[in-house]
# Entry
Amino acid sequence: AQSVTQLDSQVPVFEEAPVELRCNYSSSVSVYLFWYVQYPNQGLQLLLKYLSGSTLVKGINGFEAEFNKSQTSFHLRKPSVHISDTAEYFCAVTRSSNTGKLIFGQGTTLQVKP
Amino acid sequence: SQTIHQWPATLVQPVGSPLSLECTVEGTSNPNLYWYRQAAGRGLQLLFYSVGIGQISSEVPQNLSASRPQDRQFILSSKKLLLSDSGFYLCAWGTSGRETQYFGPGTRLLVL
# Structure
């Protein structure tokens, strides 16, 4: 069975500072990995995804993530955050199948302070 | 382009009352459809998914049910709501053979 662990429930950071949101997964088969962002009272928006190929994936809003198979990690990074990045971030995993079911982590709240 | 709609946006219901939440997708055909629930302070839990009309798979035992009467319509229902049914309900769609899911704006349900 697959599972996802987001190691930090809350990450406070000052504006223009770098940030890393950590995600580890467990799976006995090859997986696909995703990061979604959720702004207050809204649905989820896809930030980026890793399906295959280059392990460094670039997404929207200046975010990037690196897939590390040996450490089973998919950490999300941004070199300089803005107030508008304050949101909930979810890491998710799935394996290729007809159903495409996603398994989500518990989420990390990114709080950007002025 | 594809869009996904959910309604209502917010709903307050008494315990024991029925529930019907609707989700529709535009701009694609034969999508996979999903219902998730997000309880306060918790992650997302997959409730149901459907790979075609009339095909529903349940992920967790509960007093909720789902139906897919049309290709791009997915309905979440309950005959009698419980307090524990409160939460943020998200519908999503995806394409078979591709893994990305796209989410609707959600419905916030408060059961009193």
Remarks:
- Chain B has a mean pLDDT of 91.
- The interface with chain A takes residues 6, 32, 34, 42-46, 49, 51, 57, 59, 90, 92, 94, 96-106, 108 of chain B (CB under 8 Å).
- The CA atoms of residues 84 and 91 of chain B lie 19 Å apart.
- The first strand of chain B starts at residue 3 and ends at 7.
